[in-house]
Amino acid sequence: MSDVKGWSDCNWDTVNYMYYINHPEYKIVSGEHKDSYELLAYFYDDERMLYSDLKFEYLTTIIDESELWFMDMGRCIIPKPETRYIIGKGLFYYFLKDSMNGKLNSVINCRNYCCNRSGIEIPAMFFKLKKKEEATKNNLLLAKYYLDFAEGIFQNDIQGALRCVNYYQKGIKLYRDNGEPQKAEIAHKRLVEIQKEIPQIMVPFSIELDIKGVVDNIKINMEGLTFEEGLIRLTQMFVFEKQEDIKNRVIGEFKDHPLAHMLGKSLINAQGQTVLALPPLDIQNPEKDPYLLELHMYQNALEKQKISGDIWMKNALAILRDTYVVDNSMLDFLVKDNPIIPEGREHIFQSALRMFLNGEFYEAMHILAPQVENLFRNIAKEVGGLTVTLKDDGSSMEKVLSSILSLPELLDCYENDILFTFRGLLNEQAGANIRNEIAHGIISEYACSTGVCLYFGVAVIKLLSLTSVSCYQILKNSKKLKHFEVPKKDALKVIH
Question: At residue 261, what are phi and psi to the nearest 5 degrees?
């Protein structure tokens, strides 16, 4: 409702005797409903709330003053009632919109929120049209209005662009739902053009880090090692993070910073398209929806994986690359006779890992991702897991990777922490989703040489090392590998 300028913009409807303000999302009106409308719900606002919450242009809203009003709407947004949260009007609009969603689910697009110009106590009512033809006509007019409004707010700043995208999506849905697929397709093509401009106008949040302490620590731990020892040392620097730790971190961050996490997230790809809309967790009970919590866990783990890949893995790999030129034979100790590598796939694993260690990351990722998927399929099959589906016509097809990684037979072979890591890296939109980006030819050469892809490559080496007899023997007999210099607490410094 950020486009409402205040009550001076109100119009007087001489037929229906009510004030109203036109807005693409809500029609703010005051007055009695007519026979052509069906009453859905109503509630009462007191004079103080009307004054403080409806004069959006001039006041900053204090949320705990709004508690009764939001409770009356059916959802209290107060994370800590004893605390006063002061927010600007822009953020309050999101709360207002979010709190109304439950009441507005059955409203056919044209929504009404009743209030009073003078600030006295009145009933507020929601209506919807009874007549389908009129509703369809109104919806198509509203769709056009959404698109026109979107073009008017599309500017060279991220807020205008994202709002424009949001209104285009609403308009397209209205066209589709009301018998205008051609108009929906034309609008969708325009939306794609707009989305392409979003990455160019997004403003990154940058943090400058001093990683000299990290690099020095890596050099100390890699010094004087053979190639085999150096590769095993790399796996010692890598730890599969525990699911429980990720879960506790997500819930802890949500509780510590409720306002920052109440609006959810939109994950945008390099083409500016939203690949996943991640709703916020429930304030009172973050674990209420296990699936949503898991999505937040994948997203949280991804951020940590990017940092680990860009700082620790990248510099450790650079030291190995500066010291050795790797060929396939140097990886025999890791790959040969490794029981988890499918028969006949040893050479392709060697080639992919050789490319990865020599800095040919783009080529390596295109081999490693599908081969690791096949590796897990093969393990599941070998231990009795059902990896195919059966259709009614008798045909079969391979199960999707997420189903494979959830098979109980595979869970008996690996800790769930390991499977959770690879599920996020390979197959989850809230995670890195590397396998799917490679399958569709989307991933860029630059992306393969940074953060999470480097993390994935080292994760594969770690996975193979767990079942390599040669790795175990080297680790057992090497005196140097028995000592690991832990980084100092200030090894990584935030400059600004």
Answer: -115, 5
The model's pLDDT over 350-405, given as tens digits with 9 standing for 90+, comes to 999 999 999 999 999 999 999 999 999 999 999 999 988 888 888 989 888 989 99
Would the pLDDT of 226 be above 70? yes
DSSP 313-368: IHHHHHHHHHH----GGGGHHHHTT-TTSPTT-HHHHHHHHHHHHTT-HHHHHHHH
User: For strand 388-390 and strand 493-494, is the pairing parallel, antiparallel, or unpaired?
Assistant: unpaired
Ramachandran area for residue 195 (φ above 0: left; ψ -120 to 50: alpha; else beta): alpha
3-state DSSP assignment of residue 12:
strand
Nearest to 461 by CA among 307, 348, 352, 312: 352
- Rounded to a whole number of angstroms, the CA Rg of the chain reads 28
Instruction: Give the chain's end-to-end CA distance (angstroms, integer).
Output: 35
Please give the residue that has the higher pLDDT: either 253 or 115.
253
Which percentage of the chain shows pLDDT scores above 70? 72
Contacts 24+ apart (CB under 8 A), 18-22: 19/117
- Biggest CA–CA distance in the chain, Å, is 92
- C-alpha 460/C-alpha 425 separation (Å) is 11
Question: d(Cα 449, Cα 360) in Å, to the nearest integer?
Answer: 8
Virtual torsion, Cα 316, 321, 326, 332, nearest 10 deg: -10
DSSP 224-257: T--HHHHHHHHHHT-----HHHHHHHHHHHHHHS
Reading across the β-sheet that carries 18-21, which strands appear in turn?
Answer: 11-13, 18-21, 27-30, 112-114
Close Cβ partners of 423 (under 8 Å, ≥ 6 residues apart)? 298, 401, 402, 405, 431
377 φ/ψ angles, rounded to the nearest 5 degrees: -60, -45
The per-residue pLDDT for range 205-219, each reduced to its tens digit, is 677 888 898 999 999
Q: Model-level pTM?
A: 0.70
Q: Is the pLDDT assigned to residue 250 strictly greater than 90?
A: yes
- Rounded distance, CA 313 to CA 457, Å? 9
pLDDT tens track for 24-48: 433 333 333 333 333 333 333 333 3
Higher per-residue confidence, 13 vs 431: 431
- The amino acid that residue 167 corresponds to is Y
CB 426 within 8 A of CB 434: yes
CA separation for the pair 336, 470 (Å, rounded): 9
pLDDT in tens, 266-309: 777 777 777 788 888 888 888 999 999 999 999 999 999 999 99
Render pLDDT for 463-483 as a digit per residue (tens, 0 to 9): 999 999 999 999 999 999 999
**Do 214 and 492 contact (CB within 8 A), yes or no?**
yes
